[in-house]
Design a protein that fits this description.
38-stranded parallel beta sheet, 541 residues, two-stranded parallel sheet, 6% helix
Length: 541
């Protein structure tokens, strides 16, 4: 009997159970009610053993383990192959607050998580055809587990996850509500053919309250999910040598005090072939934050700092309402090993990343950034039809020298306010912006963009606000082959471009509306040697 049932078939099964009962311990039509194995469902009695007996017996021939309405207090449960764990509407699986009720599992696959991740409410390793379904609730009671130290990795220990599946195949998680984990809500490590559909996650019970972590998995489909979390939302990780690849994420609404859509920070294997579409990021309904910021840190954070690759990632049709930073791309070099005996990773690579049809509102003053490290540029970044609204009002200067911080934890606020209100771009090759609009709510002393160590930047039909305090729309340092065309600006400033140093070359400013500026370049004497300007509409003198 297939573990993943069509909705109509499941309804018929459960109707038969409701009308006729399960027919004894061995179930009827492959349905095994935990009540028939002695589970009380009173929220007081520990039901771990009867629920596990139902799972084990169901696994002998495959079928459905049914939690009918009630509250089932439980410690660790292990799912088996060919078992669908169905939590009916009106039923709650309630995680015990006693750490002794949780088994410790260290998987055969080595990963960075082995240092601290030992307990979970629902665990499976090496299983096939497993599912968690139904309209009921899983509540981890995570507030009952305390963070005992701020020292890594100890501070992550002894806080059970709600779901942890390792090296499983054909996994389906559907329609359940999950809440109050002691740490991450769910982690899927090195799983294949994973489907997560229609779940609702509320996770504000403890530190590190991620919505979900997809770690080294292949062939993943995430659809129609709702999430509101204190820590990161939908997070792709790579804490082992396994790469996370072939992932689609669509039709979700996410609220996070940290990063709504994120890759990393762990990146040993990396990320490849990822499509993210039709996403709304909105403020959390919980204003008191344990991590991050009440309105969120980043809407989209693509980070790679422990080696690996990040390539072929596409994000489209996304609305970002409120996070401090709409877009953050970071190639760093923390070089953390995924286990003690592993070789130290080298600098990874970030390439072939595209954004299209992205709108951001109520972003704060930090600014977006796209950064690599010296001699290791981020390559092939495309933004098309991107509209970003920033608060402005920063007094930061475009001349501020930002340290590389290549070995630091990657966070969009790691440099605080950037020297540009829109995009700070450093160590990047092949940047394309088409139909990009950057607007400000308040006057700002920074240019729209600062580019440093950038090769092949093409900006077509961009619209940007400028203010006299900024001096220019762009600051360029060590930039070659820069093209600005068919673009327009609102406000007023001294020059379109400020050149820093003597290593800029092949700068083209062609067929733009430049009436917002007094001149083309600062310093003016450099324009004739470095800048090609033609067909521009200039301010009349």
């Amino acid at each position: 009997m297939p573990v993943r049932l069509h909705a109509a078939s499941r309804m018929l099964w459960l109707l038969a159970v409701a009308l006729c009962g399960t027919g004894g311990r061995h179930g009827s039509e492959g349905v095994f009610s935990v009540k028939d194995f002695g589970a009380k469902g009173d929220g007081i009695t520990l039901d771990t053993r009867p629920i596990q007996r139902a799972i084990d017996e169901c696994a002998t021939g495959g079928g459905v383990v049914l939690l009918p309405p009630g509250t089932y207090l439980s410690g660790s449960l292990e799912l088996r192959s060919n078992v669908e764990f169905h939590i009916q509407t009106g039923a709650t699986l309630l995680g015990s607050k006693n750490l002794g009720d949780y088994a410790e599992h260290v998987p055969a696959l080595k990963s960075y998580n082995d240092l601290f991740l030992r307990q979970s409410l629902l665990y499976a390793e090496g299983q096939t055809n497993i599912a968690i379904t139904g309209g009921g609730t899983i509540d981890g009671q995570g507030a009952g587990f305390k963070v005992v130290t701020n020292k890594k990795p100890d501070k992550y220990r002894d806080r059970p996850y709600v779901i942890r599946f390792v090296e499983c195949r054909n996994v389906n998680v559907e329609e359940v509500r999950m809440q109050n984990s002691a740490s991450w809500m769910q982690q899927y490590l090195a799983c294949e053919d994973l489907r997560i559909h229609g779940i609702s996650v509320f996770n504000h019970a403890n530190k590190n309250n991620d919505m979900m972590d997809i770690d080294g998995c292949r062939n993943v489909v995430i659809t129609d999910c709702l999430g509101d979390t204190d820590d990161d939302g939908i997070t792709l990780k790579s804490t082992s040598e396994r790469i996370t690849e072939n992932v689609t994420i669509s039709n979700c609404v996410i609220s996070s005090h940290c990063n709504a859509i994120k890759t990393g920070t762990e990146s040993t294997g990396g990320f490849r072939n990822v499509l993210v579409s039709n996403i709304i990021v909105k403020p959390s309904r919980v204003t008191a934050n344990m991590s991050g910021r009440p309105w969120g840190i980043s809407g989209i954070a693509l980070t790679l700092v422990d080696g690996g690759i990040l390539e072929a990632v596409s994000l489209s049709n996304i609305i970002l309402d409120g996070p401090d930073v709409p877009i953050f791309i970071r190639l760093g070099n923390r070089a953390r090993k995924h286990w003690e005996g592993a070789p130290e990773p080298g600098v990874g690579s970030v390439r072939h990343v595209s954004f299209s049809h992205i709108s951001a509102f109520h972003a704060k003053s930090t600014g977006c950034s796209i950064t690599g490290v010296p001699d290791h540029p981020v390559t092939d970044i495309t933004l098309e039809d991107v509209h970003l609204q920033f608060a402005g009002a920063s007094k930061e200067s475009a001349s501020a020298r930002l340290p590389e911080l290549e070995d630091q934890y990657p966070e969009a606020t790691m440099w605080k306010d950037l020297p540009s209100y829109g995009f700070f771009v450093r160590h990047v090759r092949d940047l394309r912006m088409t139909d990009v609009e950057l607007s400000l709510d308040s006057a700002d002393s920074r240019p729209a963009m600062v580019l440093s160590d950038v090769t092949d930047a093409r900006l077509v039909n961009v619209r940007m606000g400028v203010f006299p305090e900024a001096g220019s729309a762009f600051t360029l340092e060590r930039v070659s082959r820069f093209l600005l065309t068919q673009s327009a600006f609102q406000g007023s400033a001294s020059a379109v471009i400020q050149l820093v140093g003597r290593e800029n070359q092949d700068i083209s400013v062609i067929e733009n509306d430049l009436r917002a500026f007094e001149g083309l370049c600062m310093p003016a004497r450099a324009a004739e040697m470095i800048i090609t300007g033609s067909g521009n509409v200039m301010r009349s003198r």
